Amino acid sequence: MAVFTPLSDTQVADFLERFDIGRLVALEGVASGTENTTFFVTTDRASLVLTLFEQGEHDELPFFVELLDYLAEHRLPVPGPVHDRQGIALQSLAGKPALLFPRLPGRHPKAPNLAQCRALGDALGRMHSVSQHFTGHRPNPRDLHWLLAAHHRVLVYLSPQDQALMSDEIDLYQGAFDGGDTLPQGAIHGDLFRDNTLFDGDTLGGIIDFYNGCTGDLLFDLAIVVNDWASDADGSLSRERHDALLGAYLKRRPLTESEREHWPLMLRMTAMRYWLSRLLVVYVDPPAHELTPHDPERFRTILLQRIEQGTLALPTRSHS
């Protein structure tokens, strides 16, 4: 973990001249970056986060800017990018695409409590309600079509039992999701784990890191959240956290009958999505920088729990 592109105080001070946000007071490199270079920037008027994009598809950055602008305009707790004096957010610094964001309050919840689950469910329900009307488009890079194409690359590294598990599951998803029954679509976060949120006590300070953001099934986004936020160490679902999160979400956006029908299998498919992506990092596509890969076993365990135990009943539709 490192700052991949060092910057001097002078470089950043000159960069800040493009904006109406004050003069540089302090610059601090953030060591926890995994793909991009991040600095905390303090001016005499604001606390900010400066991100330089080191890899990925730079032509997709306008989608993320437009999505964050849109969500911020709808008062969602996201870091709307700072625009310069000409109204432009996406910049260039040290030869890299650069964005400047307000620094949001709080820290990542390692073991979210029920109040935090309710706050996140409420915010995600609000986000999905408005994101259905966002006109930008980016295909989901980790959807069923990706699963179909990518899973063959890891089969040789798996036991015969796990090979069969993966292949059988993906066949099942294809039968359920590849037909004509379209689930509600919208802009989604695509990776809303606990470490992509900030909490100040029980108050949600912000939802961050939208770089997996895309257009896709809203249910896909919700299932990723529930698998991370409401799973215990053994992969089983915590009834209390499950109901707190989903109860708050459903008050903002009730699920359709088709979504309720597909919910158990969507939990399984999103568990598979992370089992596969983590296997790929371990065996096929190691990260560009020295990092400790996430353990694929976590999501294999969650997948097996969803298969063996099913899912919990969804909270009843709320009219409040």
From TrEMBL:
<dbReference type="InterPro" id="IPR011009">
    <property type="entry name" value="Kinase-like_dom_sf"/>
</dbReference>
<keyword id="KW-0808">Transferase</keyword>
<dbReference type="GO" id="GO:0005524">
    <property type="term" value="F:ATP binding"/>
</dbReference>
<comment type="similarity">
    <text>Belongs to the pseudomonas-type ThrB family.</text>
</comment>
<dbReference type="GO" id="GO:0004413">
    <property type="term" value="F:homoserine kinase activity"/>
</dbReference>
<comment type="pathway">
    <text>Amino-acid biosynthesis; L-threonine biosynthesis; L-threonine from L-aspartate: step 4/5.</text>
</comment>
<keyword id="KW-0067">ATP-binding</keyword>
<dbReference type="InterPro" id="IPR002575">
    <property type="entry name" value="Aminoglycoside_PTrfase"/>
</dbReference>
<keyword id="KW-0028">Amino-acid biosynthesis</keyword>
<dbReference type="Pfam" id="PF01636">
    <property type="entry name" value="APH"/>
</dbReference>
<dbReference type="InterPro" id="IPR050249">
    <property type="entry name" value="Pseudomonas-type_ThrB"/>
</dbReference>
<dbReference type="GO" id="GO:0009088">
    <property type="term" value="P:threonine biosynthetic process"/>
</dbReference>
<keyword id="KW-0547">Nucleotide-binding</keyword>
<feature type="domain" description="Aminoglycoside phosphotransferase">
    <location>
        <begin position="28"/>
        <end position="255"/>
    </location>
</feature>
<protein>
    <recommendedName>
        <fullName>Homoserine kinase</fullName>
        <ecNumber>2.7.1.39</ecNumber>
    </recommendedName>
</protein>
<keyword id="KW-0418">Kinase</keyword>
<dbReference type="InterPro" id="IPR005280">
    <property type="entry name" value="Homoserine_kinase_II"/>
</dbReference>
<keyword id="KW-0791">Threonine biosynthesis</keyword>
